[in-house]
Amino acid sequence: MELQTNGLTLEVVGREVSGRPVPGRPRRPAGPYLLGLPALLLSCVLLIPIGVTVVTAFRTPDGFGFGNFAVMGDPAALHAVRNSLLWVLVAFGLVVVGFFLALLSYRLPGLTPFLQPALVVPFAVSVLVSGVTFRLLFDPAPERGTVTAVWSALFGSSPVWLGPGLFWLVLVSAFGWTWLGYVVSLFRAGLDAIPDDVTRTIAAEGVTGWRRLWALEIPLLRPITGVVTLTVVVAAVRVFDLVLIAVPGPMQQSADVLGLNWWRATTSGDPAGRTAALGVVLFAIVAAVGLIGVRGLRRRRWAMPVPVARQDAALGRPKPSKRARRIGWTAGVVVSLVWIFPAVVLVATALHSPRAAGLRGWWSPSGLGLSSFADAANAGLLRALLSTALIATAATAVLLAIAVPTAYLVAWGGLPAWLGRVVMSVFVVLAVTPVQMYAAPLRDAIGAAGLAGSRVALALVHAAAGLPFAVLLLRSAFAAAPPALVSEALQGSARQSAVLATVQRTYRPALIAVAVLEFSMVWNDFIVGFLISGPGTTPLSLVLWGEARQFAASSGTVAAAAVVASVVPVVLLLSFWSTVVRGLTTGSKP
Q1: Which residues form the ABC transmembrane type-1 domain (predicted)?
Q2: 570, 136, 564: which is closest to 377 by C-alpha?
Q3: How far is CA 280 from CA 58, 74, 283, 285, in A?
Q4: Is residue 434 within 8 Å of residue 296, measured between CB atoms?
């Protein structure tokens, strides 16, 4: 072959290719893999104790086998498993109710401004505080319990709400009060992001009512439905502190769940193999739910949400009629007042003296004052506030420093496809792993290292427990960035830093969501501190639990401590809720 240029003739002489073709592989730089090293080390805080629990569960005096799992033949354990599965049904029911309430607020726009703050407040408080609140509402004495007083006035006598069978009403009400705001907010964000042209096309074809629901809203909200269902179902299976605080001691055996059964077995001196087997069974139930939901978390090509405040104008939707607005406002006010009422009861009880709160209901004008807050302060509340703030801040800082580069690595770091799937599956399983799977070995290891009661150790445990969820959420946010922009950034000399700068608009809401939720969850935590912490850390929830053990005599002090414990997370979530919802739904929009 000849090439001529500027009068110069070049002749290219080739030769016959011989020999076997040698397959080549693209070189993968090792640098990005280092981004995941801190996450691997932090995950070992959970992975190693989980491995110890699994080995202990299968180790028997004769070697390895299933002998320890004979504990599941115990009637109490079987009863706890049945109750845990019943909680799964409760979670599914809550998802359905939340979806239709979100749909109602979507069809009646005036409902949202009133409803959203009322729903956010219960989600911001801890499950322990929710249990305290509903125990106050359903107190069996008509002179103290609101529901009992109303029922007695209407029907002459009242059942024992916290007695056999009826305690489920109290527990389900408290659980729904806590989680419904989360469900409604995410579904509403998904409905707001449905493109207007799609809605008009469906309407032009005459698809309305239930047909529109099945043809449009439900299919487009399937990714969000998977995320919401996964979160609420896992929370229901892992329920622990709600039963412990809301149900009186004599009835707790009837309300037993697998997590509580494990705790009782460990505190009563049962063999380690049998208690480990209980933890493995609980882990298997929750992990199965997590793996079912992993497909919804893997989706990458989801659109960014349109901000709710600007969407109607941006898409040109017709304004609702005056009648629809009036109905929405009226319904919003009524539902909001009903939903915020338990919080009002809690605050009003806290504003009574301990003696007045123990003798009369929150509506009584006698005994008003701040003495219950003074008693709560004397019980160590102020020290617990400082300790909790330090633990939550440290855990959040460590989590963000490790989760961001790890999420980038999984999304755009060039991992092989199979390795990316494995990493995602591991994080999903870790995200739903119950504390009972690693509490006992981790507590023993912390004690052996001389760190019992250390705030640093507890903060690292919280960071490790929050890392899987943070990586999953941030990975979805990174992956939602346009691939063309990422490819263009990767071609530059800055490489990894350029990618982060390119997609910052995508992941910033998710980053804020991770920070706010991690801080709030650590602040509200009870189970990690209860099962792992030593007395030196004094987390806020443990002080609240200590006061609540004599509930009838200290309801005013407990209510005051619960109010103080709830101020920070409530203010934090109300301030950032719209950004948190955007971050939670980034990468999970239709």
Answers
A1: 80-293, 385-576
A2: 564
A3: 10, 16, 5, 9
A4: no
Domain range list for the chain = 71-308+321-357+376-585
292-328, pLDDT tens digit by residue?
655 544 443 333 333 333 344 333 344 566 776 777 7
Return the exposure string of 345-382: e unless at least 16 CB atoms fall within 10 Å of the residue's CB, then b.
Answer: bbbbbbbbbbebbbbbbbeeeebeeebbbebbbebbbe
Q: Which long-range contacts (CB under 8 A, 24 or more apart) does 412-417 make?
A: 412/478, 412/479, 412/486, 412/490, 412/499, 412/503, 413/32, 413/33, 413/35, 413/36, 414/28, 414/29, 414/32, 416/28
Is residue 391 within 8 Å of residue 539, measured between CB atoms? yes
The pTM of this model reads 0.85
Q: Which CATH superfamily is domain 71-308+321-357+376-585 in?
A: MetI-like (1.10.3720.10)
Element holding 8 (H helix, E strand): strand 8-11
114, 332 contact by CB (below 8 A): yes
The closest alpha carbon to 100, from 200, 183, 192, 173, belongs to: 183
Which two tokens mark 208?
């309305």
Tokens of 113: 């401004």
pLDDT in tens, 117-148: 888 899 999 988 999 999 999 988 888 899 99
Residue 12's SS3 state is coil
